[in-house]
Each structure stands twice: as structure tokens, then as C-alpha cells.
Amino acid sequence: MGRKSLSNRSSTSSRVYWADLLRGLCMLAILWFHTEVYYIGHEQTPYILYVADALAVFFFLSGYFFYRRWGFEPRQKLHSLWRHLVVPYFMFMLCFALPKSLAHHKDLDFVEMLQPILMGEASWFITALVMAQLLFIFFLWITREKMLPLTILTLLSVVAAACFSNADHSIIAFNEFNFWHINEALLAVFFLFLGYTCHRYPVVFRQLSHWYYLLPLLLLWIALKYYVWNSGFQMLFGPLNATPLLLFILILTMSTLLFCAISQYLPSCAPVEWVGRHSLVYYFFCGGVPFMVSQVMIRNGIAYQPLTLLIAFLAVVIITTVITRYIYRTRLL
């Protein structure tokens, strides 16, 4: 099934299939990253090659679905944000607090367990997404969706990220009180804006998806990735620590546009699309399940090898999928 048929399916359904497919692939990439970290003790596949790119895609797709042809409704979006992000965050993090403390052999201090949850530290990506969406909702409301002021506010958010949020490289002073990961959210707003703009102007977005734009963009992206990989630059999204920041933003923008375009040429894959549709729950378990699988394998003397890493990853995907299916079937979420 090629790009044309995939687009047709999207137009006749409430789901956008290339977005589900891309979200699913990115979620599998995040599971792979955590499996390597917990099983090997460090990432074997360099973080700089794909992790920040996958995170940027998630922010982009969040912004993509902000746009509605019939107009933006702040109250409806705030209700959706509360229901689909804030409530699940507190529900899952409170459930995980005690098992997490026991697994990491920490004292059962309930104040110590609750503090990171209330401060938004228990799941940095979710809380950064919440703050980024809040900022973007405010931007859309105050600008009444007019592109020029919306663009200016988005660029000011990026400037604020450069001035106060870029760990070792902040221009003015680093914001150590990173409440609900506002540091990462200031940069994430840019990718929400990018997704919103691509959905608002689909003709331009479709033009960028043609192969005669994709090929030179892909070659340039590979060249920049190779340069960054060999330069020793830091390219972390969470916590935000990137130098130079503009190059980081450029590479992630290219990655996002490339992956979105390429995903529209890929054939439909129901299992991966299912992961994409349920990626929020997968993300909540993307640390705990790889940790437990790795502990079981290590304690049973199964040392790291390429084959055992693949087995560990498959176990992580299967177990996380079973948990996710159970949560949705029992209507816990």
C-alpha cells in the first residue's frame, strides 16, 4: 500500500494512519533506548542518532492535531489536556511510587515519593508536553490563531529556552527550578507550532513530502548527523542540554519533516499503528518494564550479547503491549 492509498484511508477515517504508524515507530525506538540503558548499562546505539528526533516527532504530532478547520476552542483543549495527560500522569505515577522505591531500594518516605510527582519530575516528557500544550493554548488564544503574532510568540519561546533552559549553555542564567519541566517545554512549543502549521497549510506540507524535496533533505540530514556525531556536541532534549542550540533545532526540524514524509510512503502496519494509538500508556511503562526485564535477565546470568539484547527488547515490547491492552480493555484509562 503506497502513499496515495494511505492518504485515502486517512481521509475517510477519524484516524490519520501515517501519524499512528510514525508514533508507533517512535515509541518502539524509545523502548529500544531504555532496554539498552537498563540491560547494558548505557546506550549502545548513540542517543544523538535518534532519541531526541523521536521525542521531537511526538511534540510535532501533538501540535499537528491542535489545528481544527472549524476553529480553536481553548476550553475544549484544556479539558482534553486535563483528561488525557494530567489525570493519567497522576494516576500512573502515584501507582508506581511505592514499587519504584522498593525496586531501587529506597526508604519508604512518602513525602520523598510524592515530591517528584507533584514537581513534575516523575515523567519528564509527559510534564513537558503538558506545559508546552498549556503555553501553546495560551499563544493560540491570545493571537486568535493569527500566524504572524503566533510565530513571534513561538520564536520568543525558543529565545527563552536559549536564555534560561539550556543546562550548561544558557545565554543568561540556567533555570534550576525546572517546575514541570518548563525548560524542555519552552523548546517543545516550537515543534507544536511546526506541527500546527503543517496541518493548517496542508498544500505546503504535501509539497515537502515529494521525493524531489526528500532526497536532498535526507542527504543533508545524514551529513549533519555525521558531523554532530563526530564533533562531540551535546544534543539532549530531556534534560535540555544542546550545543549549538540552533543546530539542534535545525536537525530535529529536518528529522521531523523527513519522518513525517517518509511515513506517508510506508505500507500500513496494524500492530505498529496500534502501538502508536496507545503510545501514551506505552510511555508510562517505557522505563519500568525494561528495568524489570533487564533485572530478570541479569540475575539469571544472561549477559549482554546482540542476540540477548534483541530477546530483551522483544520481551519488553510484548509485556508492555499486554499491560496496555489490559488497561484499555478494563477501561482503567
What does it look like?
The model is unreliable at 1-13 (pLDDT under 50). The protein has 333 residues and is mainly alpha-helical. Strands 1-2 form a two-stranded antiparallel ribbon. The chain has helices at residues 3-11, 17-40, 47-64, 74-103, 110-118, 124-143, 147-164, 182-200, 202-208, 211-231, 245-263, 270-277, 279-284, 288-299, 306-329; strands at residues 235-236, 241-242.
Features of this protein?
mainly alpha, 15 helices, 333 residues, globular
General shape = globular
Helix content: over 70%
* Main β sheet profile: 2 strands, antiparallel
How much of the sequence is in beta strands? under 5%
Question: Which class of secondary structure composition applies to the elements?
Answer: mainly alpha
- How many β strands by DSSP? 2
What's the rounded overall pLDDT mean? 92
Task: Give unreliable regions as ranges.
Answer: 1-13
Please outline what is shown here.
The protein contains 15 helices and two strands.
Helices and strands in order:
Layout: H1 3-11, H2 17-40, H3 47-64, H4 74-103, H5 110-118, H6 124-143, H7 147-164, H8 182-200, H9 202-208, H10 211-231, E1 235-236, E2 241-242, H11 245-263, H12 270-277, H13 279-284, H14 288-299, H15 306-329
